[in-house]
Amino acid sequence: MNFRRKWAAALAAALAGALALTACGSDIESSSSSASQAPCGTVNIAVNPWVGYEADAAVVAHVLETKLGCTVELKNLTEEVSWQGFASGTIDVILENWGHDDLKQKYIEQQNVAVEVGQTGNKGIIGWYVPPWLAEEYPDITEYKNLNKYAAQFKTTESGGKGQLLDGDPSYVTNDEALVKNLDLNFKVVYAGSENALIEAFRTAEEQRKFLIGYFYEPQWFLSEIPLVHVSLPAYSEGCDADPAAVACDYAPYDLDKIARKAFMESGSPAVTVIKNFSWTNDDQNAVAKDIADKMSYDDAAKKWVDAHPDQVAAWLATS
Amino acid sequence: MTTATVAAGSVPWWRRVTRPWIVAGILVAWVVLGTLLRGRDTMALATQDTTPLHNSLTDVRNWVDSHRATAPLFSGVLDTIRTGVGSLTSALQDLISQPSFDRPVPLIGWLGVVVLATFGAYALGNLRVAILTAAGFVAVGLLGLWQESMDTLALTVAAVLLSLVIGIPLGVYVALSPTAERLVTPVLDTMQAMPTLVYLAPLTLFFLIGPPAAVIATLIYAMPPVVRLTALGIRQVNAAALEASRSLGATRWQLLRTVQLPMAKRTIVVGINQTTMAAFSMVMIAALIAGPGLGQTVLQGLSALDVGRAFTAGLAIVILAIVLDRVTTAASERAETTYRAGVNEQTRRTRRLILAGGGALTAIALYLSYSYYWASTFPGPKRGGVIGFTVDDAVNSATDWARHTLHPVTDAITKVVTYGLINPLQALIAESPWYLVCAVVLALTWTLAGERSLIVASVCLALLLASGLWESSMVTLTSVLVATIIVVVVGVAVGVVLAHSPRVDTVIRPELDAAQVLPAFVYLVPFVGLFGPTRLTAIIAAVVFALPVVIKIVVDGIRAVPPATVEAGIASGSSRWQIITKVQLPQSRNALALGANQGLIYVLSVVVIGGLVGAGALGYLVVAGFSQSELFGKGLAAGAAIVVLGILLDRVTQAAARRAQDREHRLTKQRQRSKWGFQ
User: Fold this and answer.
1) Helices assigned H by DSSP within A35-175
2) pTM of the model as a whole
């Protein structure tokens, strides 16, 4: 009994002490009272699975957070799934959209939940690439017509006796299977699964002088590490890719653009201006992407670029 | 003449051809005909090509999308569900993970959560799990994953709460009404057997993407255990106790409330444990449809091939899962002990006192974490935390080292296994004409599983043909078979070792538990690095995922062999190897069959994920259908094909195992009889 009373007393003393300690008030204030301009709230940015896009997202998020006091939610999603987020309100903005005219038709025209907010300034190229050593040793390999000649060398365990054409993430924009079929190439498309798996494969192929041909794209920082060589396909002409099953021409050149949720753009959030104005070059993106690929945090990589380009950032923030 | 030869002599010759010979004959015929007819009628379909069935499924989706705003089913019913689930989830997030109410931080900061969770673990369980809880929560904070972990926790709690609210009443109903049981059981089977990746596409069709859809996906997978175990618990209630209460004039409701539910409490809590664990294993899948939390970090690691980051997040998942598992297990044990025996007055008072003190401390911690940054945001850098990057880097340099030094070895392994096993098998299964494969499957089913399984097998084969994805299904089947063979061989070998040395077992078992919790995605990352984007990578990931279950089942099976039988073997001078092969393994045949069956199902669920890393076939189609709108219908059909394949393999292997068991029974009896006949 005595023992228990002692315990109770000790406990009471501890409680009293703790309460005394806490009596001096809180140091957390509500964010709206401390911010000087209009409250920004939360901005949900989709992050599609390639590092160039991550660079866009990192820099925009950094600017929104540090200059406007927004809370930014980055959501890792594939391209088409991100668009679905406009309908559910889960996603406010896609920062680097590659074409997707069918989705524009569906979400902008039909459902009226999304809007175009201009170009990012980045020029996108999709195509087939080979490691530089291969192009040097076999110069004619960069013509699609000559690929069949080398098909046997491109064989792997996965390509079922044909040459292997390595593709990236299953969600990427690709016509490669149709191209292989319609151009009568003795190749089979194999999916590496991710951008980094592609990069790793190209790097190994260059180091060990192995045959490899694969899907790749610009802007991509890796091209400055190893300048992959573009393989020419039949030239692109307007509409030659209209029927996905009958495509027999190169990929269209893309002007990458930004798409946002309509209600978000009309919300009056100060973030809207930055998202409208955001624009930079392929070199800018590659610089930030390289840092991210080298495992720098989004925040540090973005800060590095933002600190080096104050005028450009100021232009994004300017309400015209 | 002995009785045995008389019996044999009266049997016609075709009866004497034994089953192994029939199976061998079928296989030889398959190889011969398959080689002759190779490449004919394989029903191959190029990835971008679709059948009318696929197109009409895609049309359904487009119709739904364009009528989403107007059709009452969507704007009314489904949207209400979505909003309801969404507000529950975001309320929980506001509480522990996301900035809320105009504050830069959630209502309860890390200190509050840690103390509250520890207190809860003590109140529901015991001191040991309370300490484990505190350590676990602090550990994920030190890894720099506090907010992600809390998001995951909020999502899991939301899904578990909803599962219980729906699942427990449903379980009671199922226990009381045989009709309900007949209706509900197959639905539960499907909910659990369907690979989770498969129902993401249809789910987002109705509930779009975002946290609510993630919670609903989790709910579908996690609810079955609590329904089943609630029903089981109630059915197990002692008939005498029921009769006694009934004779005292208790109404049905009183009976349920005062007798059945209290007596079933322990079983129900076991169900809650299993539901929680199932919910937790969905963290990854939820990330694919914009569910926040640790899954996002793993996904990032996967797309950047950053093994360290994926591993750290995987570690946090394992830690939280172990905490949840031990706490709910301790809670069920407490339910058991308090029910069985009244605890003595003294201990109860001490406990009450500690609870009161703990409650007060919790209140203070909650207040502190509400008011002060130091108690709200976990100390350490936002990214990487105190030790997160150290762990990241250690893992990354280890894998980099492995990748560079082991490359020649892994390359050689890939070539040997692919050219030696996977490709020939795939040529046989996927490049034989469809009618030949169907005939072989039916013949094998008949021989091994009996006539009754023929119906299931025929229906499944017909559905696979109708899906328009026959060839892809056969390629996937090949990977599944290869992985299952490896799982069973390795699982039995390891299981035998563990069963023989309890010391090794105690060391390895926690790793097995952890491996089961670790999301399969986490395995993929290092294996892609080692084996490249190949079918073998998916197969290895599947093997690693399925092994723990198989090993556990095998160990339990061998342990269950009566010691007397083993003793008898030793006494008669058998070597250790003979004991294992002639006594223990044959005696634990049931466990082995169960292990093979479970291994198969686990393998199938991961092979789908292999679609993300070059494994192609059905898994790739599911993933592509989910992320490319024109392939939606095809992806849906591929998902259905996976389920059908699973049902086919499951039913046939189960029937075959049952049959083998019955036959073994008969044979032993016969042998005993003829032995007595001799004497």
Assistant:
1) 51-68, 79-88, 101-103, 132-137, 147-150
2) 0.82
